[in-house]
Design a protein that fits this description.
With 310 residues, the chain is an alpha/beta fold. It has helices at residues 24-30, 33-39, 68-87, 102-115, 146-150, 182-190, 198-204, 207-219, 251-264, 284-296; strands at 3-10, 42-49, 91-96, 120-125, 172-177, 194-197, 223-229, 267-273. It has an eight-stranded parallel sheet with strand order 2-1-3-8-7-4-5-6, sandwiched between helices. Helix 3 runs parallel beside helix 4 (102-115) and helix 8 runs parallel beside helix 9. It starts with a strand and ends in a 14-residue tail after the last helix.
């Protein structure tokens, strides 16, 4: 049987202070995401770009916060779409857009998992943990808050919708961290969340920590959501992101992670976020993301194409 994959464009950039992320979905389409999946035997349904209805303004004591009502409205919309799509039996891919979308996608698939009697797990590939609550963010950029929201931390209501389900921190693994604020560091040190910064990856590689986490997911027969931020990658190979942090994952480290995930057959949903085509070099980053998704769906190391960027 062909695997059913549903693509959702999420033209969201309200969670960041830079313009361009809303073009991410169309950049991934132009780079050939649908055809790459179809070539691997998937039945692909591109459901177009999502949109939101009215945003209800809710003031917050933290004056730094921007676009709170808009991000909250996207969260509600994505919760509904993620849960419905998953319960229909499709593999949802959410093409962002900034990382604030994960507040909705993760809680949506977690709700679907709960209705199936399963545990939800999250693999978070990002330079940042995005563990700020609304009262701790100093930048006011809400793409720094989705992990705190889907882990069920206090302080989001009534500004955000009550999450239909949350993910325990022990079920979250973060890899590639290298830009962590003090309030986030305290959470990482005081909760059972699995966190691997780039030094840990330099010392141990990606395979060991990842396989240990996947063994736990498999033992509990859980669903695994993969949330992939472009800034997980080193900016030398993926320049199309507004939050560049040097020293990210290499081409082979990223592909190895995707190949291991494919072998595990545990991933059940996917975010692709923070792609900013305005900052790209001839589609280089979008093309790389498509190739990484292809590895997740079974493209082997022997099948790597030759790229030309000149």
């Amino acid at each position: 049987m062909k695997r059913s994959v549903a693509l959702f464009g999420v033209p969201l950039q309200a969670g960041t202070d830079q313009s361009g992320c809303l073009m991410g979905p169309d950049a991934l389409r132009t780079a050939g995401l649908s055809s790459a999946l179809a070539d691997l035997g998937c039945q692909v349904d591109d459901r177009g770009n999502l949109n939101i209805n009215d945003c209800l303004h809710e003031a917050h004591d933290n004056d730094a916060i921007r676009n709170l009502a808009e991000v909250a409205a996207w969260t509600k919309e994505l919760q509904q779409k993620a849960e419905t799509c998953f319960l229909e039996g499709a593999f949802p891919i959410f093409m962002g857009g900034d990382h604030s979308l994960a507040a909705g996608t993760v809680t949506g698939v977690a709700s679907a998992a709960a209705k199936q009697g399963k545990e939800q797990f999250v693999l978070w590939l990002d330079a940042h943990p995005d563990l700020h609550r609304l009262d701790t963010t100093r930048s006011g950029n809400l793409h720094g808050t989705p992990s705190a929201y889907f882990c069920g931390f206090d302080g989001f209501e009534p500004h955000f919708p009550k999450p239909p389900a949350t993910v325990p921190t022990r079920n979250v693994c973060m890899m590639g961290l290298r830009s962590v604020d003090a309030p986030e560091r305290e959470i990482l040190q005081t909760t059972p969340l699995h966190a691997y910064d780039m030094r840990a990856i330099d010392e141990r590689g990606v395979a060991g920590p990842l396989n240990r986490f996947l063994e736990m997911v498999a033992e509990r027969d859980g669903n695994l959501h993969l949330s992939f931020d472009v800034d997980f990658l080193d900016p030398e190979i993926a320049p199309a992101v507004g939050t560049t942090v040097p020293g990210g994952a290499t081409f082979r480290e990223a592909h190895l992670i995707m190949e291991i995930l494919h072998d595990s057959q545990l991933v059940t949903s996917l975010d692709l976020v923070e792609l900013n085509p305005f900052l790209d070099e001839r589609g280089r980053t979008a093309t790389l993301l498509v190739d990484l998704v292809a590895s997740l769906f079974g493209k082997t190391v022997m099948d790597r194409p030759t790229f030309r960027y000149n």
